[in-house]
Design brief:
The structure is a single chain. By secondary structure, the protein is mainly beta. It has 5 helices and 30 strands. It has helices spanning 24-38, 55-63, 79-90, 96-108, 111-123; strands spanning 133-136, 142-147, 153-157, 162-165, 172-176, 183-188, 193-198, 203-207, 213-217, 224-229, 234-239, 243-248, 254-259, 267-270, 276-280, 285-290, 295-301, 307-312, 318-322, 327-330, 337-341, 346-350, 353-356, 358-364, 370-376, 381-390, 393-404, 412-417, 423-427, 432-435. The strands form 8 sheets. The chain has a 4-stranded antiparallel sheet, with no helix packed on it. 42% of the residues are buried.
């Protein structure tokens, strides 16, 4: 639900008295120009008092390149403001609306505008909450997040870099370079190593102490999709070729190779002691492997869609999030279903049909909460939500509902939970991520 009182809607500009020789049509055009200038779609000096300007000339002015010194943060950047603009423009009955939309989109896609939009959106939702911190980077998109034991946050980006951030004030402390393609996954092990997997088919190992590059795993023949590190020094990685490789984290020696044969790898998760590996590919089930010999122990079958994320808590309970809109909790002992976490959000799938919104990312909180990133393609709505444990089951609540968007809210790319139960989320098509 929208809190309309939180959105500032400006008054209609005062045009003053009718100018000499000004017709009703010209006054109408001048009113449109004043409204466009108010919304920063035109510069103030472009409004003027010309009583002979035609709609075609006004359309050309609006369609011209956006001035480089325009400050998008001064915009009243909200769907309501856009609706007001288009309503005014539509009254003219001219092609001006198309020019307005083109200029709107140019500024909408700028980074300052995206920040302004997020502030407006967070302020406008009664059932959401603003982030306590926004981490602003220079990369085009954040694809992976992980929190270190000292509270630092590590982010993987589509520009092939790993960002190291202060969890206290959001300062970018360091940028790790070396990959040749986008980062797809990050993992940290208990002995102080950071692992970054990339579309360049390589896994790089970094020291958490000083962020120095230590070694490289180069045996994959396809893009690396997921990495999971265990407490016993074992590291497992999966690629788009549906191959799992098991490594010794400290030496980089490959212990074994497992060919799954079920399509592209989606996610991996090791058990707390590092003896069991859980994998999810394009099929609708979770495979459980014995790490010591690579044997397949069981299939966890219960989803009606592809599994997008896996996690295992300290007690060994396995969580699988699917694009069927559910999170299933499995026993780490025998694979039995413990609980199925659901939500009431829907997505349109064509021909008037609807389905549960897909869960594209997941993270576990230390208090037992399960966090999920929901996406409702093809209309690009996104939500950050959580299931909180309580006696007799879990209850679902929304943290942030982005509504319909074609900008920075197309989906939640990555999630991670740090100390004090702080949740970090990265939205698609956005070089920033947020702490909640």
């Amino acid at each position: 639900s929208r809190n309309m009182a939180a959105v500032h809607v400006p008054e209609v500009p005062d045009l003053g008295p009718t100018l000499p020789g000004e017709t009703a049509e010209h006054r109408h055009i001048r009113g449109i120009k004043a409204r466009l200038a108010q919304a920063r779609l035109l510069e103030p000096d472009e409004v003027g008092a010309d009583v002979t300007e035609t709609e075609a000339e006004l359309e050309a002015a609006v369609a011209s390149p956006v001035p480089g010194d325009v400050d998008p943060t001064l915009w009243l950047a909200d769907e309501l403001m856009l609706a007001v603009l288009l309503y005014v423009v539509a009254e003219s009955g001219s092609p001006l609306g198309g020019a307005v939309c083109r200029r709107w989109r140019v500024l909408y896609q700028s980074r300052p505008m995206q920040r302004a939009l997020r502030v407006m959106r967070w302020a406008g939702y009664e059932d959401g909450q603003p982030p306590c911190r926004v981490f602003e980077g220079d990369g085009p998109g954040v694809t992976a997040l992980v929190v270190g034991p000292d509270g630092r946050v590590f982010s993987g980006s589509t520009d092939s870099t790993v960002g190291v951030w202060s969890g206290v004030d959001g300062t970018l402390l360091q940028t790790l370079r070396g990959h040749g393609e986008a980062i797809t996954t990050l993992a940290i092990d208990p002995i102080g190593l950071l692992y970054s997997g990339s579309l360049d088919c390589i896994i790089r190992v970094w020291s958490l102490a000083d962020c120095a590059h230590l070694r490289t795993f180069e045996r994959h023949r396809h893009e690396v999709e997921s990495v999971s590190a265990g407490t016993n020094g074992v590291v497992c990685s999966g690629d788009y070729g549906d191959t799992i490789r098991v490594w010794q984290g400290e030496t980089g020696v490959q212990v074994r190779k497992i060919y799954v044969g079920a399509g592209e790898m989606r996610a991996l998760a090791l058990s707390p002691d590092g003896t069991l590996l859980h994998s999810a590919s394009e099929e609708f089930c979770v495979r459980v492997w014995r790490v010591s010999d690579g044997s397949l122990l069981r299939l966890l079958d219960g989803h009606q869609g592809e599994i997008m994320a896996l996690a295992v808590n300290a007690a060994g309970t396995v969580y699988s999030a699917s694009n069927d809109g559910t999170v299933i909790m499995w026993s780490g002992v025998d694979g039995a279903i413990i609980d199925t976490l659901e939500h009431d959000r829907k997505m349109h799938v064509g021909y008037g049909s609807v389905a549960d919104a897909a869960i594209m990312s997941m993270a576990l909180g230390p208090d037992g909460a399960v966090y999920g990133g929901l996406a409702s393609a093809p209309f690009h709505t996104s939500e950050v939500c959580r299931w909180c444990p309580r006696t007799g089951g879990s209850y679902f609540e929304c943290i942030f509902d982005a509504g319909k968007s074609d900008g920075p809210f197309q989906g939640v790319n990555a999630m991670a939970v740090g100390e004090n139960n702080v949740l970090y989320t990265a939205f698609a098509s956005c070089g920033e991520f947020c702490a909640w």
